[in-house]
Amino acid sequence: MNQKQINSSTILKKSSKGREILSSHAAELSRAERNVLIIANDKLTVKEIVLMLSIPFSTIDTLLEKQFLEISDWGENVATISTPQNSELPLQISNKLNIELPLLENSSSFHRTYAFLSIQIPEFFGLLSFTQILKLEKASDLNELKPLIQNLLSKIEKKHGVLAFNAYLEKLNLLIKD
Predict the structure, then answer these.
(1) Cα separation of 43 and 95, whole Å?
(2) 80-81 and 101-102: which strand pairing?
């Protein structure tokens, strides 16, 4: 596939080769590539994946060239999860909280929460995010994500107060809900 053929509304899915390399935990994938393969579910558009993971388009292009991703459809809209705007929240927190995160209709609450945490942990832990990200990558179910969620919420409350804590808690509850 050539980058010029793909547009922002192209819908992607993992190929059988992509599922195979993901399940083998092969070291040849970067973290960004692995995250794309985890969330590519035959529902998300290129734009949604790029925005959600804050990755360059070249990551998608590379995965298509290696045949780890396939084009499923050339354009369907997907509903998004959004948290109601709270005018009392500082703009900085509101912007971080309300990143465009697609509603993964046929995905598990684990994958939705994983995607959200993969963006939020580096935002709040800075240099200390490395160990949190390693724990995130090893997690295989929601129970293994709960300590990471608690660490994130604790960091948010200490850094930005109860209002931000409650807003993040509400967002995480939306993502976890089946």
Answers:
(1) 24
(2) antiparallel
Q: Is 169 left (phi over 0), alpha (psi -120 to 50) or beta?
A: alpha
Query: CA 139, 143, 145, 147 torsion: positive or negative?
Result: negative
- Answer yes or no: are the C-beta atoms of 81 and 175 closer than 8 Å: yes
- pLDDT tens, position by position, 64-123: 888 888 887 766 443 333 444 444 556 656 666 665 555 555 677 888 888 888 878 887
- Please, which residues bridge with residue 131 across strands? none
Q: What's the pTM? A: 0.50
CA angle, 41 then 44 then 50, to 5°: 115
- Between CA 18 and CA 69 the distance in angstroms is 6
Instruction: Count the neighbouring beta carbons within 10 Å of the beta carbon of residue 127.
Output: 6
Strand, helix or coil for residue 57:
helix
Is residue 120 within 8 A of residue 93, CB to CB? The reply is no
Residue 111 CB coordination number (10 Å): 15
Burial of 121 (0-12, 13-18, 19+ CB in 10 A): buried
